[in-house]
Amino acid sequence: MIGQAKRLYELNILQSEKIKSGFSCPVIVFTSGKGGTGKTFVTANYSFLLAKNKKVLVVDFDQNFANLHILLNVTPKKNIYHFFNDSAGPEELIFEYNANLHFIFGESGKLDYPEFNETMVYKLISELSSLSAKYDAIIFDTSSGAKKETVKLLNFANIIYLVSSSLPTAVMDGYVILKLLKFYKNRSVVKVIMNKSDKAKGDEAFKNLSSAAMHFLSLNIHYAGNIELNKSVILSIEEQKLLAEYNPTNEVTFQIEQIVNDFANNKHVVNNSQ
Question: What is the CATH number of domain 2-264?
Answer without folding.
Answer: 3.40.50.300
